[in-house]
């Protein structure tokens, strides 16, 4: 429910402003019709739109925010509800396409080094035996775990697919 100028709106108000005769073929009022002559979409998408303004300084508009229509990577930092949330721009205003190409060139070696380091550290940590294989905590489907592969005896990241009950 939205209150504006002492009037209450509940959801989209398209139907009250769209000519019902135009949509079924012909409006007998023609150009004198006070209603909008637009086709109502079958998927129910509303034509009601409301401009949203934020308190943003002109400096930020030009220097920090991306150009309108640009696809950028964002990180959702807070969600109050589906219509009120906050995001940050972890890669600045760079377009996703440019970022992907640059990242693939610049970070390929770093990524491989970090991945190899992760695997090495996993082997070292889990080989110490500091974990408990006989835990009484049940695993859940979809849960991410570290699992020892019986063929090579190494530890890998894994996802639980099925949980079987022991009788």
TrEMBL record:
It comes from the Eukaryota. A zinc finger (C3H1-type) spans 13-40. Keywords: Metal-binding, Zinc, Zinc-finger. Residues 13-40 form the C3H1-type domain. GO terms for molecular function: zinc ion binding. PROSITE patterns: TUDOR (PS50304), ZF_C3H1 (PS50103). Residues 138-167 form the Tudor domain. The keyword Secreted does not apply. This is C3H1-type domain-containing protein. It comes from Mytilus edulis (Blue mussel).
């Amino acid at each position: 429910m939205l209150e504006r100028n002492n009037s209450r709106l509940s959801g989209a108000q398209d139907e009250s402003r769209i000519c019902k005769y135009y949509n079924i073929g012909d409006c007998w009022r023609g150009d004198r019709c006070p209603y909008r002559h637009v086709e109502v979409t079958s998927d129910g998408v509303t034509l009601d739109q409301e401009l949203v303004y934020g308190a943003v300084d002109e400096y930020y508009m030009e220097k920090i925010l991306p150009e309108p229509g640009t696809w950028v990577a964002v990180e959702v930092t807070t969600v109050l509800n589906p219509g009120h949330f906050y995001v940050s721009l972890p890669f600045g205003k760079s377009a996703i396409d440019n970022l992907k190409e640059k990242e693939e060139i610049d970070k390929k070696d770093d990524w491989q080094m970090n991945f190899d380091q992760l695997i090495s550290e996993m082997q070292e940590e889990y080989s110490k035996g500091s974990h408990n294989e006989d835990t009484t905590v049940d695993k859940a489907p979809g849960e991410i775990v570290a699992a020892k592969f019986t063929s090579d005896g190494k530890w890998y990241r894994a996802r639980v697919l099925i949980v079987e009950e022991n009788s």
